[in-house]
Design brief:
The chain is 28% helix and 15% strand. By secondary structure, the protein is an alpha+beta fold.
Length: 456
Amino acid sequence: MACGSCSTGKDGQPKGCQNNGTCGTDSCNKLTVFDWLANMTLPNGAEPFNWVEVRFKNGRKHYYKNTEGLTLSIGDIVATQAEYGHDIGMVTLSGELVRVQMKRKKVSEKDPEFLKIYRKASQKDIDIWSDARDLEEPMKVKARQFAINLKLHMKISDIEYQGDASKATFYYTAEERVDFRELIKLFAKEFKTRIEMKQVGFRQEASRLGGIGSCGRELCCSTWLTDFRSVSTSAARYQQLSLNPLKLAGQCGKLKCCLNYELDTYLDAIKDFPKTEIKLYTEKGSAVCQKTDIFKGHMWYAYEGEWMNWHLITKDQAKEIIEQNKQKIKPASLEEYAVELTRDTKSEYENVVGQDSLTRFDSPKHNKKRKSTKAKGDRPQNKAQASSREDKDGTDSKRNKPAANKPKPRNKPNPRKEVMSRNANTNPKTEENKPNKPNPRKRKPQSKKNDSDDAK
């Protein structure tokens, strides 16, 4: 790693700034470029390219000429030329790939007013640079308060100190032109340094600040995207996306840059489809295109006057009907083509398991309990009424079967009744259920001999 907090320590273990994917000192992975020409050797007699790419805070990059012939590699901290004094930055590219990047960004090598690299940064230069970076956050809070007190319609998004702490650049966004002359006087009096105001767009502000997008990843503009192309709502229309500004807008408030990524593929696929403005004329009536599915090659048409009934056909079938209409031939109806399509594609997209369906939770769950179709007033109050109804109708009211053919229920033992009978037998309060145990207080019956003597 390039920054101090992420570099390898004395014990050989990487420190790590623990900022969950974003560098704490803004020096690791922001707008990095892979040098795929680093392992290539130059031909004999060719001199190495003496320009390097230096990156500053939040992705700001410039190209400098190595006039001193310093041996520079990616990650070296260097002191570069500035308008006033010098600036401190980090080398991000060197060698032949810098030539390619300069040609891509239209930077001329023969510019007489080129900037150059002074030296590799010393420890004193790095200390001054780091101390100036620590002052940027409290300064931004005060600057925003000054702008609010002056009632200026602007937002100060970021502050960048020069490497030698001789100048501070204030980046702000505003929808209208702002007169900040009084604001600069307050800044110069409070911060006691040279002030420069620079207006940036909303996309540039998001790229400088960074963040997490709706996709769950870091913003493209703050990680790898270097040029900002204009994005229009037609890109969303070609991809058949809903024109919802809450879903199509990014953190900058503008349309997402990723809408342009797959636009060329969609435009190539749409070329094979017939134009949606063309109507299909049949004997049943004229049909208008309602929707297209670019991935499957399907189109939905509806007859004029029957807008709720859509008919699904393929793009080839639509082309065939258009050719017939050009020859003044009208097919019978669209239902003929729709029936053939459903018969062919039913098994192709059938989901056996049901886990891949996005609408599997839309339908309500069916209640497993069997609902009674009878009204409460028609239900019999007791078994006698039910039996009389069966005798009167001659059928079973539940299943509509003859009552004579209904098998008799078996006399199954009811465990609840058995427990109740046991409890009744063991209840000492009832005289009938008393156990036949001998009572010691009662007189024992005399024997038969005594009975016979008494009779005599």
